[in-house]
Amino acid sequence: MDVEALVRPVVESAGLELVDAAFRREGGRRVLRVTVDREDGLDLEAISEASERISRRLDLEEVTSGPYTLEVTSPGVERILRLPRDFERRVGEKVKVKTAEPLDGSRTHSGMLVAVDAEAIVVGTEQGERRIRFDAIRSARTVLEWGPAPKPGVRGKVRGK
Asked: What b/e string do you get for 87-100 counting C-beta neighbours within 10 Å, with b at 16 or more?
């Protein structure tokens, strides 16, 4: 059964976007992980509501025989990029792209996502801009740039007392 096709209308009717839906084996148990997103971000209430709706739909359709755990989650801070629209939304952000074959001597390309068109993305790397065709991408994700660590002893102090 195509789980993605089954849950997509439920997710979209809640005003969310379906990022991924797939069964996986984790720790000896079957887990159906449904990843959802929303342009203005998600809160716990939206995820909880989506989880309830998806659970009801899956129960009605008897999606699988045997036990499984449903997990509804957000993509997190480092987001997987698959579709052209995923890349379009992340122009100006730092990304890490892995290609199936070496491009300019490397399979890993990290830098700022500069542009997206119908056939490819452009990543500004330390070696210059690289145009990478969608059909050459094996995996891609955004990269969170962590700020400097707080100075010891500063955090949690109340100033002026």
From this structure: bebbeeebbbbbbe
